[in-house]
Amino acid sequence: MATGSKATFHCALCNELAGSVELLPASHPEALSNNPTISIRDFIGIEREVISGDRGELQAALREADPAALYKVERLWAPFYCAECARVYCRRHWQIFPVYDENFYDCSYGYCPENHKRLIDD
Q1: In this model, does residue 71 exceed pLDDT 50?
Q2: Residues 6+ apart with CB under 8 A from 78
Q3: Is residue 113 part of a domain?
Q4: Is residue 102 part of a domain?
Q5: Percent of the chain with pLDDT over 90
Q6: Is 99 domain-assigned?
Q7: Where do runs of H (alpha helix) occur along the chain?
Q8: Which residue among 23, 48, 70, 90 sits deepest, i.e. has the most Cβ atoms within 10 Å of its Cβ?
Q9: Is pLDDT above 80 for 102?
């Protein structure tokens, strides 16, 4: 793939940027191990993960900027999306709680403005 696909998502409540998701080609300087890489930004720092297998559904979700489709491909790639509300919320509108296992970070759960709980980061 010559160029990556990118989508931005805005908060349903305040229209602020909730997150951006980009599929980086293997040749991109931020790609991991010279492999296609997904990059999730602007919600909780920067997350990157190597992508393997068919990327068709991911590319379609990004092309359409469809948070539900992105969530369906991989829930953690749409941390700003509440599937129960079918809405995107920015970091300011989520209540996020990190979980620690013997003093080491394990994961984070979040509650959307409607108090729906979901895994945000693992």
Answers
A1: yes
A2: 9, 19, 21, 67, 70, 71
A3: no
A4: no
A5: 89
A6: no
A7: 56-63, 67-73
A8: 70
A9: yes
